[in-house]
Amino acid sequence: MLPIKVTHSGVLIIRLQADLDIGSRAATSWAIDGLLAAHRSSPVVLELSGAVLSPAAVSTVVRAIRVCRDAGTAAAVVASGAEARRALGLAAGAHTPDVHATVPLAVAALSPTLGAAA
Fold first, then answer.
1. What separation, in Å, do the N-terminal and C-terminal C-alpha atoms of the chain show?
2. 3-state class (DSSP) for residue 17
3. What is the pTM of this model?
4. Exposed (0-12), middle (13-18) or buried (19+): which is 87, by Cβ within 10 Å?
5. CB 98 within 8 A of CB 76
6. What is the distance between the alpha carbons of residues 50 and 40, in angstroms, rounded to a whole number?
7. How remote is the C-alpha of 34 from its chain's centroid?
8. Does residue 83 carry a pLDDT above 80?
9. Dist CA 65 CA 98 (whole Å)
10. DSSP state of 9
11. Comparing C-alpha atoms, which of 69, 94, 96 is closest to residue 85?
């Protein structure tokens, strides 16, 4: 089970390990899918712990952002290191995720979508 938090304003925060290995990627993606289905329409923040992202973590985040985008759900990513933020932008290609340095910044960026999610 992934650690989650739902803010008082309804933003779902999912914490992921930045050093996620390839063996855990499918199970983590499946768990994220379940959380997104359970919290349908809630804006999502994917919080990465650690500065160095593994390729499996990058892939998982990019996939989750794509799933959110396809469902019309606003999403943002928190990555503490500049290198991690850069890696996410490069991996996502044309659909660069909204990446922030802290959870409060990511939640604030999603604030305009909260009325639309209700």
1. 26
2. strand
3. 0.85
4. buried
5. yes
6. 27
7. 14
8. no
9. 9
10. T
11. 96
Q: Encode pLDDT of 56-78 as tens digits.
A: 988 898 899 989 989 889 999 99
**99-100 vs 4-6, strand pairing mode:** unpaired
Which amino acid is located at 11 in the chain? V
Q: Which helix (H) or strand (E) holds 78?
A: strand 75-78
Checking if the pLDDT of 47 tops 50, the result is: yes
Instruction: Check pLDDT > 60 for residue 116.
Output: no
Query: How many residues would you count in the chain?
Result: 118
The torsion defined by the Cα of 101, 103, 109 and 111, in degrees rounded to 10, comes to -170
Structure tokens given for 67: 């799933």
Half-sphere exposure (Cβ direction) of 13: Cα atoms closer than 13 Å? 19
Tokens of 43: 């804006």
Could you please report the per-residue DSSP string of 55-81? HHHHHHHHHHHHHHHHHT--EEEE-SS
Q: Which carries the bigger pLDDT value, residue 113 or residue 10?
A: 10
